[in-house]
Write a structure and sequence with these properties.
Helices cover 35% and strands 17% of the residues. It has 324 residues and is an alpha/beta fold. Helix 4 links the parallel strand 5 and strand 6. The longest helix has 22 residues. It is globular, with a radius of gyration of 19 Å. 47% of the residues are buried. The structure holds nicotinamide-adenine-dinucleotide (NAD) and uridine-5'-diphosphate (UDP). Nicotinamide-adenine-dinucleotide binds next to helix 1, helix 3 and strand 5.
């Protein structure tokens, strides 16, 4: 029997989504990419447009959509703080109404559906590293809440559709991921530091730079997500997917300066409200259930990302919002 599946990727033109589409197209699946291009652009997937097993639909997932598919990866949502805070109500709608629309489609088609959740469900964590059983410490009325609480509500919807309607779901909690293909005006720390270093601009460290993050390379992340989709139906997650290597933001800034050989200076700016002080995934569950762990060390991943950024023409990218 053919192993070819009809796979919908929402947010498929974005940083992670476009790489996921590349993988699925290469595996010969019938891939439908849905995106409203809020934080991405068509050029991210233009190399796939002439492939017979790839289709691109401009659509906003807060509105219903009628398709026949076997699997859904739900990645549509702005992911960088500056961009998701630009229109916070829309961000919450994308997570909640998008989940309802896509879970309805999964229920009707009996499709498997995976939610790209986030380490942000842990908020500013009191336990370290974060395990999936930790329920988090999110400020429900803060500036990050539109994203954090939207993603938490989406997880709730996924589990309720699973329990009440027997929808075949998967939830992955993604920790900070970087790599070639990031939007240069995305505003996240890795893309900002590399863009600034390569263009001789000041490197903007927020706060004292002693907050930590754990950075996962794009390919490792996408591999984990695919393994979760293809894993046993009994294992719905949530499962942490991330790289446990933990670095301060100041360490990251120094690594980028060293690797680019840049003359840029580090400058310090105010720390945004509710910025988590530390973040590191416990990946015991992913290792045990999916046989997955990241392979790419930060030094090598940064090298590849820097090489990619050297060829990026900034004037070919539209900044999604002024917040980068
Ligand atoms: P991204 O911003 O590059 O991609 C998101 C995509 O979703 C973009 O192409 C955007 O245009 C699209 N989109 C946004 N709102 C939409 C809507 N209403 N309808 C249709 N499309 C819409 O971000 P990314 O890093 O590729 O993240 C992909 C997913 O993974 C997101 O759901 C994000 O929350 C999650 N995630 C990413 C990270 C990370 O570090 N990259 C960490 C945790 C979670
Ligand atoms: N950050 C920074 N300078 C920047 C962008 C981000 O110091 O130009 C910091 C930010 O305050 C946070 C960390 O880097 O502590 C990671 O930020 P990012 O926006 O990449 O993702 P987050 O994990 O906060 O969602």
């Amino acid at each position: 029997m053919s192993q070819i599946k009809r796979v919908l990727v929402t947010g498929g033109a974005g940083f992670l989504g476009s790489h996921l589409c590349e993988r699925l197209v290469a595996e010969k699946h019938d891939v439908i990419c849905v995106d409203n291009f809020f934080t991405s652009q068509k050029t991210n997937v233009s190399h796939l447009l002439n492939r017979p097993n790839f289709e691109l639909i401009r659509h906003d997932i807060t509105h219903p959509l009628w398709l026949e598919v076997d699997e859904i990866y739900n990645l549509a949502c702005p992911a960088a703080p500056g961009h998701y805070q630009y229109n916070p109500i829309k961000t919450m709608k994308t997570s909640v109404m998008g989940a309802i629309n896509l879970l309805g489609m999964a229920k009707r088609c009996r499709a498997k559906i995976l939610q790209a959740s986030t380490s942000e469900v842990y908020g500013d964590p009191e336990i370290h590293p974060q395990t999936e059983s930790y329920r988090g410490s999110v400020n429900p009325i803060g500036i990050r809440a539109c994203y954090d609480e939207g993603k938490r509500a989406a997880e709730t919807l996924f589990m309720d559709y699973h329990r009440h309607n027997k929808v075949n779901v998967r939830i992955v909690r993604i920790f900070n991921t970087y790599g070639p293909g990031m939007h240069p005006f995305d505003g996240r720390v890795v893309s900002n530091f590399i863009r600034q270093a390569l263009h001789g601009e000041d490197i903007t460290v927020f706060g004292a730079g002693d907050q930590t993050r754990s950075f996962c390379y794009r390919d490792d992340l996408v591999e984990g997500m695919i393994r979760m989709m293809n894993g046993p139906d009994e294992f719905v997650g949530p499962v942490n997917i991330g790289n446990p290597g933990e670095f301060t933001i100041l360490e990251l800034a120094k690594m980028v300066i060293e690797q680019t050989g840049s003359k840029s200076k580090i400058i310090y700016k105010d720390l945004p409200a509710d910025d988590p002080t530390r973040r590191r995934p416990d990946i015991t569950l992913a290792k045990a259930k999916l046989g997955w762990e990241p392979k790419m060390p930060l030094t090598e991943g940064l090298k590849r990302t820097i090489e990619w950024f050297k060829n990026v023409k900034l004037d070919e990218f539209r900044a999604p919002t002024p917040n980068y």
